[in-house]
Amino acid sequence: MITLAVIGAYGHRQPLAYPQIRARCLRDIRVVADPARADIVAVAHSKDLDSQAAVLRGLSRDQRAVLLSEEPFWDTIWGQDPLRRDLVHTAPDGPLAVTQLNHRTSTLYRFERIPYFLLTAEHFRTRYRVWFARNAQRRPEEWQARFAQLSGRLAFVMARRHSPRYVVRFPGSPVLSLCNLRTEIAEACQGPGTRCMGRGWSGDPSAEAPRQALVDWHLQKALDLRDRFAFVGALENTHDPEYITEKLFDAYAVGAVPLYLAQGGHRVHELAEPGSWVNLDGLAPGEVPGRLAEVETGPAFCAAYARQQQRLAQLFADREVLEAEYDRLRRALLREFTAVLG
User: Fold this and answer.
1) Distance in Å from the first CA to the final CA of the chain
2) For residue range 285-317, what is the model confidence (pLDDT) as tens digits?
3) What gap in Å lies between CA 111 and CA 144, rounded to an integer?
4) What Rg do the C-alpha atoms of the chain give, in angstroms?
5) 290 — phi, psi (to 5°)?
6) How far apart are the C-alpha atoms of 250 and 216, rounded to whole Å?
7) Which CATH number fits domain 116-320: 1.10.10, 3.40.50, 2.40.440, 2.60.120?
């Protein structure tokens, strides 16, 4: 039995913070509140490496310090070296050695069929099972008629972020920040038929609540988008081959064509039927409106789109697939923690 303590302000954002994941790990990993009783003491954000440096430096010889991160956005924007497993973090009081377990340095997030993010809230599977079962009933010709009716209508749901801070690339790695680029894409698409929702778009910060402040941001998003737009921006904040959140699935769920950005080797190519989405990889923001104008939602496209809806309906209807994914994550956590302690 491995014991784990998670400290710091961001401790609620790591795999063992979610009850459904923690429950499946009980026979192998026990979460404790007291760092002195833990084999591994973890933080979930590099900011917590700074704030908790004194605690981490005070660990015994038998304990290990870990940066256990589920969020590539944090790793790339605030992290000092997100591609290195054995990390020496420069804290305010000097160097701090930790093991870094994230999307690039561990196997934790190498999903089989359902991406990690969808395991962090049980409502994802419940809602997708219902929504995709409904969508799967539509025939290709029905999708074609619907897209013809909504021609040109486009929505982006994301924070408006643009800063030199987000200019992040790692030579030789597929990891890069997309914050500036996706904001520039949304700005380039402004005009009749385009709607941008999220912080920073209305011009009135006092009227824009962060999604975490909403009672149910995921359901609200679906209600705002359902059957209203032909295209929905689903670009992630970070390009990482293993990092796929709800955005892609939400676009399909509301009956829209996802706009995504994925280089070759990105695992979205395994999840999305070819010809049922629009890949913006390699396009400058100003080229995107023209690319969308070229999308033909005719019989061939709608046949692929209908197949994708049926494929997603089957995926989320199968409880065994979900349980297998949770078990994969349990085994990966145990394997990685054992390696850290070894």
Assistant:
1) 14
2) 999 999 999 999 999 999 999 999 999 999 999
3) 33
4) 21
5) -65, -40
6) 14
7) 3.40.50
Within a 10 A sphere around the Cβ of 197, how many other Cβ atoms?
16
Rounded CA-CA distance 288/186 in Å is 9
CB 185 within 8 A of CB 282: no
Q: Is residue 51 scored above 80 in pLDDT?
A: yes
Amino acid at 54: A
Domain boundaries, the chain: 2-106, 116-320
Q: Strand 40-43: give its sheet, edge to edge.
A: 29-31, 2-6, 40-43, 64-68, 94-101, 86-91
Which amino acid, one-letter code, is at 37? R
Question: Per residue in 188-226, pLDDT tens?
Answer: 999 999 999 999 998 656 555 676 677 789 999 999 999
Closest CA to 183 of 206, 171, 205, 165: 165
Q: Which residue has the tokens 């991160």?
A: 69
* Alpha carbons 6 and 16: distance in angstroms, whole number: 9
- Here the tokens at position 21 are 């994941």
Which residues touch 228 (CB under 8 Å, ≥6 apart)? 150, 153, 155, 254
Q: Is the dihedral of CA 326, 330, 335, 336 positive or negative?
A: positive
